[in-house]
Specification:
Elements (H helix, E strand, L loop, with lengths): L1 E10 L4 E7 L4 E7 L9 H18 L3 E11 L5 H11 L9 E6 H10 L4 E6 L3 E6 L5 E5 L11 H11 L6 H11 L9 H7 L2 H5 L2 H9 L6 H22 L3 E5 L1 H4 L3 H13 L4 E2 L6 H13 L5 H11 L4 E3 L5
Parallel strand pairs: 1-4, 3-11, 4-5, 6-9, 9-10
Antiparallel strand pairs: 1-2, 2-3, 6-7, 7-8
């Protein structure tokens, strides 16, 4: 017996996750692999990574599945050029067969999951940063998301780069120790920024933001300007988007905002003080669940509420298989 299935992929600068669900919303399989940001990962590697993820999910199932629809949400596909190149690549994914395929940005699937396809605004701050909104007329509004070299203000990568730059100052001994400990550098040696940025991926650089946050929480004044500036930058992304979209419902995504961090605490205070009309809501679904919901809605435009409830109920119970890549 063949089971009708729907596939979602959430690909960012740190990892890529894949989920396969049946027509009732029951989670059949999940898998995870390395990053898939189109500005960081060569297309040949991206293709192999996605094929391996989809194959892993299919082989986890104890039944034969036919993927009716797939939604792939990837960081970096917001530009027309990247979108066109990646659309062509997805048409060659053999494991999807005749499934209909949607290509979205990671922000779009996060927004779809947060508000179940209804109007709202999503602020993402993880490896990168972006603010995305959809209004009652289905118009989309974007602020930020320019990538690590042009912006991603307030993101983990931005915080890390600020810390690395400031750690060179003679008076920044505490900050220097944090940076050296994180990257296992001899503190007696000069920190070579170019060497660090060439040696480590954006996700590895971005991970420095968490010891920086911990130092702020512990009362270290040397990191305070960085954390406060990150909160200001994220506040400004929301402000700019609100001025264009007039959307007042906001949800958070990304590791800096879904965990308890000083960046989130400061941001919430700034929003309460300066934009009291913005109301913060918990996301209904994760970005990965948002991707598979998009896939399902492509075939069933008005999803049965039972599908969403089953997706919520079974998502956390399905084991996540890590893909061993041969790349």
């Amino acid at each position: 017996m063949t089971t009708e299935a729907y596939l979602g992929i959430d690909g960012g600068g740190s990892q890529t996750r894949c989920i396969l669900v049946d027509s009732t919303g029951n989670c059949l399989a999940q898998a995870t692999s390395g990053p898939s940001n189109l500005n960081q990962v060569p297309q040949n590697i991206l293709r192999q990574r996605l094929e391996a993820l989809i194959d892993t999910c299919r082989t986890q199932c104890d039944q034969t599945v036919q993927i009716k629809s797939a939604c792939l949400g990837l960081a970096g596909c917001g530009t027309d050029e990247n979108h066109q190149r990646t659309s062509r690549l997805f048409k060659t994914l053999s494991h999807l067969g005749s499934a209909s395929i949607q290509l979205k940005t990671d922000a779009e699937i996060a927004l779809a999951g947060a508000f179940l396809g209804q109007p709202g605004m999503i602020l993402i701050a993880g490896t990168g940063s972006i603010c995305f909104a959809i209004d009652h007329f289905a118009h989309l509004y974007r602020t930020g998301g320019e990538g690590p070299f042009l912006g991603d203000l307030g993101s983990g990568t931005w915080i890390a780069r600020q810390a690395i730059g400031r750690a060179q100052a003679p008076e920044a001994s505490i900050l220097r120790k944090i940076v050296c400990d994180h990257f296992k550098i001899d503190p007696q040696l000069k920190i070579n920024q170019i060497e660090l940025f060439n040696k480590y991926s954006n996700s590895e650089i971005s991970a420095l933001c968490f010891p920086i946050c911990a130092a702020y929480t512990a009362g270290s004044q040397c990191v305070a300007p960085i954390i406060q500036a990150a909160a200001d930058a994220l506040h400004n992304l929301v402000l700019e988007n609100y001025q264009k979209s007039n959307v007042q419902k906001l949800a958070f995504a990304g590791s800096l905002l879904t965990q308890t961090t000083p960046v989130r605490s400061l941001l919430e205070q700034r929003l309460a003080d300066n934009l009291p009309q913005i109301q913060i809501y918990p996301a209904e679904l994760s970005p990965l669940q948002g991707a598979v919901l998009n896939a399902y809605r492509h075939i069933h435009p008005q999803p049965n509420p039972a599908f969403i409830e089953k997706l919520k109920a079974t998502f956390s119970h399905a084991p996540v298989q890590s893909v061993r890549e041969k790349i």
